[in-house]
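Question (not urgent): is this output format expected?
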Amino acid sequence: CDTGVIFSVDGAATWNKITKATLGDPTNTAGDGSPPDTDDLDEISIAFDPQDVRRVYVLRLTNSTWNASFDPRAFLYWSNDYGAAWFSFGVGI
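Got this back:
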């Protein structure tokens, strides 16, 4: 099963993955600025700017139970280029 968030800019003729989903990797670390893996997500929400569809927002809520010391958090990311590059609003909300 392949997981992640995908997008298309050509009317669904082709699709691109914008998250780094690696099943079985409990660290869920994205060192390149992209939204982290989706295998421990409780919820993910996506919104597009109605004035500029190139701007995408992703809210990532985690509820991981693999580590008792893990602090579940919400992470908010945004992109100006349909999801090719991502920026974080902060470490954790």
